[in-house]
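Final report, closing paragraph on structural work. Over the funding period we assembled a curated collection of sequence-structure pairs, and we close with a single example.
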Amino acid sequence: MRFAPFVLVAALLLAAAVRDGVDRWIVETDLPNLLTDTSVQVVDREGKLLRAYTVEDGLWRMGSPLAAVDDSYIDMLVAYEDRRFWLHRGVDPWAVMRAVYQAVWNGEVVSGGSTLTMQVARLLEDSGTGAWQGKLRQVRLALALERQLSKEEILTLYLLHAPYGGNLEGVRAATLAWFGKEPLRLTPAQSALLVALPQNPNDRRPDRHPNEATEARERVLQRAVVAGVLSDDAATAALMTPVPNQRREFPSIAPHMADRVVAARPEAVEHHVTLERDLQLSLEQLAAKALRGLEDRVSIAMVVADHHSGEILASVGSAGFSSGDHRQGFVDMTLAKRSPGSTLKPLVYGLSFDQGLVHPETLIADAPVRFGTYAPQNFDGRFRGELRVREALAQSLNLPVVLLTDEIGPANLMATMRKAGTVPEVPGGVAGLAVALGGVGLSLEELVQLYAVIPQGGLAQELHWQPEEITQERQRVISRSAAWHLGDILSGISPPKGASRNGLAFKTGTSYGHRDTWAIGFDGQHVAGVWIGRPDGTPVPGAFGAEVAAPVLFEVFQRIAPELTPLGPPPPETLIVSTGQLPEPLRKFRGRNALFEKPEDALAVAFPPDGATLEGGNSEVILKVKNGALPFTVLTNGAPVVQQSRMREMVVPLTGKGSATVTVIDAKGASDRVTFWVN
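Its predicted structure, as stored:
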């Protein structure tokens, strides 16, 4: 008996030594890397997933914070896998004893006694479950993890690494692939399947082994009822729900923009952009619909932005992203430099308003003109004569805008485009008068940014996809009054056939050879653009911006909002008068060479216009003469054909097809002549 105190002391010392040894064993545990690579994600302005990328080993590894996972799923998981998870320190002795007892009683392993923490240890090191060495390592690592991490952090690791069949890891990847939804709100049937899958993910894949998946889910539901985390009625309803029969594709919304964003910041795991997911999806569907009936190599691009903030709300680079697509859908046509056709004309008029050259009510000539060897023509080859500047812009006539470009200077036009934040590219590097008609390279995104100037009262507005606030000072591109006049004119253009006259301000364009068709428009809140053409630059015969791109633009605005936001009122300095009320110099555009022109009452051939083309192989032409003293003598190609005529409108014979020069001489010897072509 006298040795009893010594035995007790020895036992206590031995227990302390064992405790210290175990403690040291746990402390000295080499922890695996807890910062595992996860799928890079691009999310919209509200955090909704647009696109995700697999990690290097081809896995979709997507976890989720506990706050973003349905509580009922967590409760069901703990009830089924480790009901004392919140109490033990990594190893549950009661579960271990139960597993040993069941193994002895049944002669085989019935339950493993692994805790969720031990399962996390196994997943982190990808260790097996059978060999005792592996199980011992899991115990050691589980005990170490419990000392380093909170229960919530351990559970979050499980939600990141648990396998759910195929190349799916993590609860978020599972819910997206099997249910097409985020894990925040799950049904009991969905939660039970997610609990069952990680135990045997490939043999319980619901798309390949639906019976096994259903049976495993049923066992989870039964235990959830016993644990009191699910009612009998809810479990019965869940049992009636079929398991998913196919795996869903991961979202690939705004793929071009997503690639662009990831390339800009390759080190980031989650990228936030200004896009609106629902609008983006809607426009991607519209893009596919818009190309029906068009040549199968034609593509489309669309950009929508809020011109107040400069945020890009939608960006569609093509109708389909597949790299094998004959439409070259992998090419982001929102960034491709193309000829903008007539879409730059409003900028020319805006600069002309600011320089005092014209006013919207100024009369301007739509007549043949030549600048050295450059003789521009209207798209249809016709001439309208004298008309108001407002009408010239609305009808997108070429000759008036070239006259104005000659006055303001192509270099000034280029500088203004750069001031608006665009980077125009000119073939050969030297800008000429053809810039006004599309002889320059701009992207769709740049054109939309350029048009944002107009509803922004003439101030440059940089478009951006990053949600950061732009703080740099904005440059003035045109005056407030010039911008208002442009919006007023463009909102009065007739809409495409079938579209409602809703007052959308818009302009269309078609590049040389029908290679590009455009429609750019804006209201009081949004600015948008549509491009349709072939990415390889091949012409699309018969395609016009007004007929192909404009109807799509109007539908874009219908999908942005049911009603347009009105444009603002004119600024106080805006001059709103008729042609007759304008100051004398603004009533009619004359240009810098007006001093060298003939007086208005001088003899002139009014028809046909100089440089015109007459169709039909006519053997004669109606000649109209204004001013001059009667009688008239008329020569065709130098030969007299009419003499002593007292008519100002007469029929003049022609010598045949080809070039014809008609000269008129009046009684005082004054003369005028025109040269035209007869087909």
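The first helix runs from residue 4 to 27. The radius of gyration is 38 Å. We thank the funder for supporting this effort.
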